[in-house]
């Protein structure tokens, strides 16, 4: 389970946008389908207003990351938004940065799941790291 967002603690508009994104995405749940980043289509169930909000949230997160490259809230918002938009390769990059910044096991699980079809070797490394850090998920053991 992806960690819960923290309440706003900064006065920037970008941070408020990121916090709002985390609230929206927690209500939306997981993306319905996730085409590869080269795909022109957006996952089913993502309305045009939501697409616009996700794009704005990515821009806000990027603004924060320019000032604080390892900000976990901004990295999480960008990872979730790009994943929901079906930009899986980009989401993988954000999740990798997030895991490196936080060292939280759950992001290794997410990396393994996202990389499973596109990069099995990287997926295997992420899954191994997940288990080495004490993570438990039987679906990963099947790989």
Summarize it.
The chain has 143 residues and is an all-alpha fold. The protein has helices spanning 13-28, 48-67, 72-84, 88-102, 105-115, 120-132, 138-141. The longest helix is centred in the middle third of the chain and has 20 residues, at 48-67.
Q: Mean pLDDT across all residues, rounded?
A: 74
Shape, please?
globular
Report the C-alpha radius of gyration, rounded. 15 Å
Q: By helix and strand content, what is the structural category?
A: mainly alpha
**Strand/helix succession:** HHHHHHH
Record field, number of beta strands: 0
- Helix content range: 55-70%
What is the count of DSSP helices, taking H or I runs of 4+ residues? 7
Unreliable spans: 1-11, 33-40
Can you describe this structure?
There is one protein chain. The protein is mostly helical and 143 residues long. It is 64% helix and 0% strand. The chain is built from 7 helices and no strands. It is globular and about 40 Å long. It starts with 12 loop residues before the first helix and ends with a helix.
């Amino acid at each position: 389970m992806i960690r819960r967002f923290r309440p706003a603690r900064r006065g920037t508009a970008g941070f408020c946008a990121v916090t709002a994104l985390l609230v929206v995405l927690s209500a939306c749940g997981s993306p319905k389908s996730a085409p590869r980043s080269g795909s022109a289509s957006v996952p089913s169930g993502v309305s045009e207003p939501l697409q616009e909000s996700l794009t704005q949230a990515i821009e806000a997160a990027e603004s924060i990351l320019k000032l604080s490259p390892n900000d976990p809230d901004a990295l999480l918002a960008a990872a979730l938004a790009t994943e929901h938009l079906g930009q899986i390769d980009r989401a993988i990059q954000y999740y990798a940065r997030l895991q490196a910044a936080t060292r939280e096991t759950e992001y290794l699980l997410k990396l393994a799941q996202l990389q499973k079809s596109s990069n099995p070797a990287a997926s295997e490394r992420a899954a191994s790291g997940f288990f080495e850090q004490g993570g438990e998920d039987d679906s990963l053991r099947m790989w």
